[in-house]
Design brief:
By secondary structure, the protein is an alpha+beta fold. The chain has two domains: 1-96; 98-194, ATP synthase, E subunit, C-terminal (hypothetical protein PF0899 fold). It has five helices and four strands. The chain has helices spanning 3-95, 99-113, 125-130, 135-143, 175-194; strands spanning 117-122, 147-151, 162-166, 169-173. The chain has a four-stranded mixed sheet. β3 (162-166) and β4 form a beta hairpin. α1 packs across α5 and α2 packs parallel to α4 (135-143). The radius of gyration is 47 Å and the shape is rod-shaped.
């Protein structure tokens, strides 16, 4: 081998070593960059997963809260429906009382609602026709210390119960008016009994 060939061979050998060193250094840099990219991607993926979990937990919490609210609302609707049904049945039962029980109830209502002075008790035509003969007497014997009530012989257009008149003052004692006036009290009495 000639001197020139050895020089060329030495240059080629040095070039190969330099190229190998550059390739090795580039490969290390590429591997480092790839590892950094993987690490960054894993960190970003972990953040995305963590945020997604938090959002999912928030959505589940909101859904639970809404479901509980809907359940409470429906429960209250059912409770109110049950109470209203019971009160309606009670009202119908009072309407269906026999004459003696019905007029005993009216007597108690009149005594409770009578005011001082002279009053007029007005009934509907059906109740006037079935009124016991001593009804007015029973009322007046119960309230004689504070006043008196005369039963009007003229019928008024009411469903049931009576209306008490004291001059310009009218006391509505129809069963519906009494029920409506006491509705909240009746519901307060029923709720603990039904829904302890």
């Amino acid at each position: 081998m000639t001197g020139l060939e050895r020089i060329v061979e030495k240059i080629a050998e040095e070039n190969k070593q330099a190229t190998d060193a550059i390739l090795e250094k580039t490969a290390e840099q590429a591997n480092r960059m790839l590892a950094d990219a993987r690490e960054g991607a894993n960190a970003k993926a972990a953040r995305v997963v963590d945020e997604a979990k938090k959002e999912a937990d928030r959505i589940v919490s909101v859904a639970k809260s809404q479901a509980e609210s809907i359940t409470r609302k429906r429960y209250l609707q059912v409770r109110n429906a049950v109470v209203n049904d019971i009160l309606s049945a009670a009202y119908e039962r009072i309407e269906a009382l026999d004459d003696e029980q019905y007029f005993d109830l009216l007597l108690r209502l009149c005594i409770r609602n009578a005011e001082k002075g002279e009053g007029v008790l007005c009934l509907n035509a059906h109740d006037l026709a079935r009124m016991p003969a001593d009804f007015e007497e029973k009322i007046n014997s119960a309230i004689y210390e504070t006043g008196a009530v005369m039963v009007s012989r003229d019928a008024v257009p009411i469903e049931n119960g009576f209306v008490l008149l004291y001059g310009d003052i009218e006391v509505n004692c129809t069963l519906r008016a009494v029920f409506d006036e006491r509705m909240d009290d009746l519901k307060d009495l029923l709720n603990p009994l039904l829904f302890a």
